[in-house]
């Protein structure tokens, strides 16, 4: 066999691994970035700080993820895609090392912030899949990457709990550094260079700064609302500042020559409905996850709960992760049969069913596993379908930016869900300061109601197209020639 033939075969084997490597990078980044909730009591104990202070080891990752998503998405549009993907994974790896060596909470928060950059890699992975994979494989791969991100967040809970129990807090962060370093090497070897593919556009630094300040002000207020009191001048001032900054940012984006996010894409009904669903489902997801993990850890002496350890509470989420991944595999067939909007609405209703089930029936631990399994089916379907609605409606050159904004609204929903859970449980606390069973059921009923609202958002707006081809997502041509001058489909 000649050298040319060997090169072609080698390139073919390398190309076949691009998809699995992108899934690996997405899973690793999501798992590591979610190293937070199960470790908060350990962080408080090891660094001799309060639980509210230790909470920042999780909050900072969500904050950085919300900001880094559109930034990495825009940096990755065009010839800088592979370099940006490598840089993001390098930041996650460095964050693991910093967190593992931390001798104080401040250093740990810095390391966790670097690990939070990994949450912004999902739009980059999706844009890379659209650029590098054969057209027939793009649709199912984008759906799988979206679900991998959500499943990774769920898998991080039990993984971190098990590692901390075996090797301590530093061991969890060293584990993160090793696996993210492995993902970095895989991307460097198997993902081809994107240099020379178009011209790198000028980066929108003013828009980035405004968005970062707006998100930080809003999410800090949400994260600390319970601790600082929702009616306090500080919280109200931060929320007002966040709203004002978002308004200024929206005006700046509409006037920028090369904006960070093409907000005009929201005029497309599918894009607007998909982003709205992503935010409200993010709220419901974190309410359900926080509610069920705290419920199972509640002492039986209170008349409810199962006195479970943090490890067992993490294991309760295993069905969520596995069924989120598994249910996404049926998306193309479901979309061909019923249409994308119907699939999205049904997935939301299945998620509501899972939340409602555990709100009514919660006398045995196995029922918590059933609840997260049903939730996994619903969320797996919805989070796989949402990117398809967005990608179908935007030009290829805007994929990274559009998916970056999708990540922003999803992470904003996560933070809102976490804060809302704390508020509801605090409002239903007993004389000993511990939440009552009524507080937990209220959290789950609110989450169920939010899922029903998401189904309405998905169903009622007029759909432009209901039956994409068998792949599940209809993609515009890479040249964008079938698009109007404002970047939307005619």
From TrEMBL:
Q: Which GO terms describe its molecular function?
A: transmembrane transporter activity
Occurrences of domain Major facilitator superfamily (MFS) profile (ranges):
18-466
Primary localization: membrane
Region of interest called Disordered, as start-end residue ranges on this chain: 469-490
Which Pfam families does the entry mention? MFS_1
Transmembrane residue ranges: 21-41, 53-72, 84-102, 108-126, 138-159, 171-191, 203-223, 235-251, 272-292, 304-326, 338-360, 366-390, 411-430, 442-460
Q: Which InterPro entries does the record associate with it?
A: MFS (IPR011701), MFS_dom (IPR020846), MFS_trans_sf (IPR036259)
Keyword tags? Cell membrane, Membrane, Transmembrane, Transmembrane helix, Transport
May I have one GO cellular component term?
Answer: plasma membrane
Membrane topology recorded in Swiss-Prot or TrEMBL: Multi-pass membrane protein
UniProt-annotated location(s): Cell membrane
Q: Keyword check for Ribonucleoprotein, yes or no.
A: no
Domain of life here? Bacteria
List the PANTHER family hit by this protein, alphabetically: BLR6921 PROTEIN, MAJOR FACILITATOR SUPERFAMILY MULTIDRUG TRANSPORTER MFSC
- Under which name does UniProt file this protein? MFS transporter
Q: Organism source for this protein? A: Actinomadura litoris
